[in-house]
Amino acid sequence: MTTVVTCLLGVLAGSVTSANAASTLETVKEKGFVTCGVNTGLPGFSSPDEKGHWTGMDVDVCRAVAAAALGDAKKVKFIPLTAKERFTALQSGEIDLLSRNTTWTLTRDATLGLNFAGVAYYDGQGFMVKKSLDVRSATELSGAAVCIQSGTTTELNLADYFRLNGMKYDPVVFDTSDGVAKGFDAGRCDVMTSDQSQLYALRLRLRLSKPSEAIVLPEIISKEPLGPLVRQGDDQWFNIVKWSLSAMINAEELGLARANIDNNKMSKDPAIQRFLGLDGPKGKGMELSDDWAWQIVKQVGNYGEVFDRNVGMGSPLKIERGINNLWNKGGIMYAPPFR
After folding, report:
1. What is the tens place of the pLDDT at every residue in 267-286?
2. 228: closest CA among 212, 208, 242, 240?
3. Over 123-135, what HEC string results?
4. In which domain, by residue range, is 156 found?
5. In angstroms, rounded to a whole number, what is the distance separating the alpha carbons of residues 173 and 193?
6. Could you say which DSSP state residue 139 is in?
7. Is residue 115, in this structure, part of any structural domain at all?
8. Which of 42, 96, 116, 219 is 20 to 30 Å from 135 by CA-CA measure?
9. pLDDT tens per residue across span 254-272
């Protein structure tokens, strides 16, 4: 009986503590900034310049959340994390949000106490080799040494692919994506494998005389939906992050961009009126200002703008939109409506 009573008291105490705990939004407002976990340095997604200014798609997701929650996209503290560190940092409360080219999987969604708030980039795992290897297909890689980052789905996908195709390989494991690129560059492996977007980004770091000396093979061996994560148990913060991403996607569909959003305040389009917070659900349900979505687009941009300047044709990576185009333009990028 004593054990039962003790357990019940423990549960009640935990419930009271949980009830009294400040929400993530309250904590963010109190400290005045969003603490966001990002990659230690991946061009196009999260990378600091020589002055410590961060840029990238994942970085812009963090800034969109800050614009919505605090009205200022600059109020973000970026915490660079390795693949091994990222989930613990979010679970422990060290960061408010993880936006670090992380793949949405069943295991991560169901066993880590974390929630994915949407897909910011649809990717797939591929392989990069030097032209001198004279390989044109991943099916020719049996016996190859493969540079790979530890603590990622890439490790598991690689093992599955080689086992399924009856091939052997020698894994050369690194803790960071930068280490993978340096290992490949130094000749420690024949092949580098990662999400295709990362391969194009890491190729920029190689010391090869020409980037074209390293080629990406045609095979894509996995689905890699990449998106931001939050801790489970705070539905309000989960909604804020989820709808911040959705706002950028919906803004592009509505034709709203940084340069024209102010001119659309007099629009008669009901969908635009709802988006701008002039009608419809506004911000009350998430305890945000009514113009929270306007703040995101005005300060950060719509999804198309974010894609283009970080990884698309307006960036050094020159990645085609492909499946990351809007659903009505041949892609699969789609967000719930503002209604």
Report:
1. 999 999 999 999 999 999 99
2. 242
3. ECEEEEEEHHHCC
4. 124-223
5. 11
6. G
7. no
8. 42
9. 999 999 999 999 999 999 9
Q: Is 16 exposed, middle or buried (0-12, 13-18, 19+ CB in 10 A)?
A: exposed
Q: Shortest CA distance to 302 belongs to which of 76, 123, 57? A: 57
Angle, in degrees to the nearest 10, between helices 303-310 and 235-254: 80
Is residue 21, in this structure, part of any structural domain at all? no
Of 226 and 7, the one with more pLDDT: 226
Q: Residue 150 is part of a domain; what is its CATH number? A: 3.40.190.10
As a whole number, mean pLDDT of residues 151-165 equals 94
Question: How many domains are there within the chain?
Answer: 1
Query: Considering the domain boundaries, does residue 200 fall inside one?
Result: yes
Spatial distance between the Cα atoms of 65 and 335, rounded to a whole number of angstroms: 16
Residue 334 domain-assigned?
no
- Of 70, 75, 32, which is closest to residue 291 (Cα–Cα)? 70
Q: pLDDT confidence of 17, banded at 50, 70, 90?
A: very low
Cα–Cα distance for residue pair 168/316, rounded to 1 Å: 35
Instruction: Check: CB of residue 71 under 8 Å from CB of residue 210.
Output: no
